[in-house]
Amino acid sequence: MFRRTFWFTSGVAAGVWATTKVNRKLKQLTPENLAATAANKALDAGHRIKDRAVGFALDVRDNMAQREAELGDALGINENPELPSPRRYAAIENRTNPKSVESDRTTYSYNRNEDH
């Protein structure tokens, strides 16, 4: 009698364990859960790629500054750090020109579609 009770209890426990395991797996395979898992993995991959890209950009910037210093030393640019002042370009609108005065602008037609 004890053996039958033992095997019956073992069978019930195995059935409960198997049912629980199958139900958990079925919940993992629902469309909503699959979509959430895929979205989480995509976000994680995006973060990893971003971190690598930032690290790469910092490495490039450091190496660029180092190479720029090497080139400056080789060309003798770093010996005199003062550069000439930037050029100043003439303004597009010249106030001394009579064509650019506001009152005269009404007499000039700039319509490209106008017949000449």
Structure summary:
The protein has 116 residues and is an all-alpha fold. The protein has a domain at 2-79. Helices cover 66% and strands 0% of the residues.
Keywords, separated by commas or semicolons:
mainly alpha; elongated; 116 residues
The low-confidence parts are none
Strand content: under 5%
Distance between the termini: 117 Å
- Report helical residue fraction: 55-70%
What gross morphology would you assign?
elongated
Q: What is the gyration radius calculated from CA atoms?
A: 39 Å
The arrangement of helices and strands along the chain is HHH
Largest β sheet strand count, sense and barrel closure:
none
Helix/strand-derived category reads mainly alpha
Question: Could you characterize what this model shows?
Answer:
This protein is mainly α and 116 residues long. It is built from 3 helices and no strands. The chain has helices at 2-28, 31-75, 102-105. The termini are far apart. The model has no long low-confidence stretch (mean pLDDT 81).
